[in-house]
Amino acid sequence: MSGLWQPTQLQAMYYGPSSVKKHLFSHLPSDSSKAFIITGSSLATKTSLIGQVESLLGSKHHAGTFASIGQHAPITQLDEAVESVLKDASIDTLISIGGGSPIDSAKVISHRSHEKQGRYLYHISIPTTLSAAECTLIGGYTNVKGTKVSVAHPRLIPQVILYDSSFAKETPQKLWLSTGIRSLDHAVELMYYPTASEAPTKQLCLTAISQLFEYLPKCKKEPENEDYITRLQLASFTSLFGLGLNLKGPLGLSHTLGYALGSPYNIPHGMTSCLTLPSVVRLKADNPEAAEQLARILPFTDQQRSGHDRKDAIRVGDAIDELLKTLGLDATLKDFNVDEDQIAKISKMATNSEQGELFDKVVSLIRSKL
Q1: 24 backbone dihedrals φ, ψ, rounded to 5°
Q2: Nearest-angstrom CA–CA distance, 5 and 76
Q3: What per-residue confidence (pLDDT) applies to 145?
Q4: Rounded to an integer, what distance in angstroms lies between the CA atom of residue 140 and that of residue 289?
């Protein structure tokens, strides 16, 4: 066995109740730092969270707030945010608050800052979902054609992550639980990802899978339990952080299907993972190398291995299906107005082909979810 693991620029990760209040101010890059908040309208208008952060920063450090980032980070809104940030040269810090869209948007803004002004911006992330966007060097957004595209660079990874259960409590339960399945998607697909290292990546992924299977159902029953919330935040972190700088393209078929379904059909990425992951796992069971890695997951779903990799990998897919039913997240594409006539288009986008064995399998997979 041999391999390589490369760490990111992450400097600190705090977790627990009141993490924002305790640690935000001390992690501004300097005493004169000016911070700009990137978030969505729901958090800004339906909760007091953004106001709390603005108050913590005070007039000395708060340079402004952009609160119009929508699902999948549409380019129009993103351009507005970029303009707001780059017109003030004193801004050196971005604070993203929310799920994957505000976090990715902050990365794109930092990328644009480097393009136009020759500097990346310091990034503090306060996640309120379990999407784990704060753990990667990729910033995704939706272009004018409605297609998800991205920028990527090691300097785009946040320097500080603050997991605060009091902030996450404000997230609607379905969004919270479905993004937990997104984290599960990360962890599962990293098990057969070509550049994922055994340590820490795959070992952390197995831990994340175990925690997600245990605490997602518990959190559904007790959504206000801050211990469960914090444990799920840590599971989300361990589902993807361990990859470090070994990221070399999309994680796997479930993710590429998610991109094909997400922006074009306005399906949240948490729900795309609910739609695709179990079936993709069963499809990957036909690949002996992938099946060997997927079979390792089975004991972390509280089941015993049989010693037959393909059968055990299929059982992993079945276990994910059962978890979705427990969480009330089993869904079909028709729930999102995706019909039969869209199958070929989605399959082409996910596989980058119009024929062949994989294309045919994906067509069958999508048809089974209608």
Answers
A1: -60, -55
A2: 37
A3: 83
A4: 30
* Tokens at 45, concatenated: 């208008």
**362 vs 368: CA distance, rounded Å:** 10
Structural tokens at position 13: 């990760």
Distance CA 30, CA 27 (A): 8
- Which of 38, 14, 152 shows the shortest CA–CA distance to 98? 38
Q: Cα-flanking dihedrals φ and ψ of residue 307, to 5°? A: 95, -5
β-strand partners of 88: none
Order of strands across the sheet that contains 62-66: 12-15, 160-163, 122-127, 91-98, 34-38, 62-66
322 Cβ contact list (under 8 Å, min separation 6): none
User: Which residues in the chain show pLDDT less than 50?
Assistant: none
Q: Quick one: which of 301, 171, 183 has its CA closest to 223?
A: 171
**What token pair was written down for 252?**
């796997």
Tell me the three state secondary structure of residue 37.
strand
CA gyration radius for the chain? 20
Angle formed at CA 70 by CA 116 and CA 112, multiple of 5 degrees:
10
249: helix, strand or coil: coil
Q: pLDDT tens for residues 118-137? A: 999 999 999 999 999 999 99
Residue-level pLDDT at 68: 87
- pLDDT tens for each residue of 216-254: 999 999 999 999 999 999 999 999 999 999 988 889 999
CB 13 within 8 A of CB 68: no
Distance CA 114, CA 151 (A): 12
What angle separates helix 343-351 from helix 253-265, to the nearest 10 degrees? 130
Residue 143 pLDDT? 87
Tokens standing for residue 15: 């977790």
3-state SS class at 57: helix
What's the pTM value of the predicted model, to 2 decimals? 0.95
Whole-number pLDDT of residue 260: 94
Query: How far, in Å, CA of 96 to CA of 277, rounded?
Result: 28
